[in-house]
TrEMBL record:
Cofactor(s), by name: FAD
Keywords recorded for this protein, A-Z: FAD, Flavoprotein, Oxidoreductase
Segments forming domain FAD-binding PCMH-type: 35-214
GO molecular function, one term: FAD binding
InterPro entries the record matches: FAD-bd_oxidored_4_C, FAD-bd_PCMH, FAD-bd_PCMH-like_sf, FAD-bd_PCMH_sub2, FAD-linked_Oxase-like_C, FAD-linked_OxidoTrans_Type4, Oxid_FAD_bind_N, Vanillyl_alc_oxidase_C-sub2
PANTHER family for this protein: GLYCOLATE OXIDASE SUBUNIT GLCD
Signal peptide: none
Pfam families given in the database record: FAD-oxidase_C, FAD_binding_4
Species this chain originates from: Amycolatopsis tolypomycina
Record-given protein name: Glycolate oxidase
Amino acid sequence: MGDVAARLAEIVGERNLLTGEAISEDYAHDEALTAEPQKPAYVAKPATAEEVAELLKAASEHNVPVTARGSGSGLSGAARPQADGLLISFERMNAVLEVDTGNHVAVVQPGVTLAELDAKTAEAGLGYTVYPGELSASVGGNVGTNAGGMRAVKYGVTRHNVLGLQAVLPTGEIIRTGGKTSKVSTGYDLTQLIIGSEGTLALATEITVKLYPRLAHGATVLAPFGDFGQVMAAVPAILSSGLAPHILEYIDNLTMAAIVYNEKLELGVPDKIRETSEAYLVVALENRETGRLEEDVETVGELLGELGASDVYVLEGNAARKLIEAREKAFWTAKAAGADDVIDVVVPRTAMPQFITKARELAMAAGGGALGCGHAGDGNVHLGIFCKDAAKRKQLLTDIFAFAMELGGAISGEHGLGRTKAHYHAELEDPAKIELMRRIKQSFDPAGILNPGVLFPEGTA
């Protein structure tokens, strides 16, 4: 082995370092549609924070670019390594270290999946509420992208649910930020700075997350609307009612048709209503008492009827579960339908009708289409973009992102910029903010080894 490989093997052990043909294709990509797979030169599988620190020291010394990987379920190319780079896979750092029932927190390693954390916390009657739709996703990956998901309307996104980190700087120093306390007003909040930085500032090796009591009873209400504007008008009315849904989603008619077909769903919606519906609203409620839940379901049903729903359907347990699971897999539905890209723009929720209408118009003008669904409660719009011509698609996305920002929104609500959206951000964002981000990056990572090309386009960081 070369000098670099020998040093890396010395740190993690030869069996935990992969090179050459031993590196499988799985390590070459995440789930982004437009990021070409690329195998790294090395894959290291550390078991401790100290090993991560030594790996980063070695990478800095030899100027080897480093990419962190959890489950590889990201959608922005942030987990795609560089050809001459080191991929640090956290698959061995996958322990739930503690479930603290007194403080309602869990302490986990970054490779723990959401499914594993959910199973462990369920034993204590608690749960971690960040639910981005892919239970095989790792908690560390969620920290990297500030993942959100359908439950964000009630519980917030990752940054609202992470209290502290142990993190390794690219210089090899191990730091702790935050902890089990729910408030801190002591200096800069480094926890929040690292969350959402997509592996460009530091690598989280231990994560302290909030837990909530599990509510035993839930119900899902499905409401088809003949007019998309009515769907969007219903959202603030529901949120102002005090019902506090933990899921509030819109799904356009074509996406719903694809979901129903692919998943073979039986939702009980008559053909006549389905054929005249432009979009659907999905409202999920939860409570610790069945009586109160039933009252809330009745209230939301009456409210939806007043707001223009064609009808209201309370889904039975299996149908509700399957619809929510299918909605979580909407990315795969779009991919199977031949989408050329998937975006997750966020705008103020009252601006969603204006944004979606404009995005569809822009897509049609480019000879393509824009279909999808989204988190209606927080303005996060997920669209499958259909536009085969690469040049036209780039201009289309530029126009869509620019319009979102004009409305007070941002390019990404939860997927991150990664490699696939970094150049749009560089083109459209305030140059003063970009320059400030560069200075922050430089202070954390003076050698520039952490995820070059992510957040900042190649050659600009």
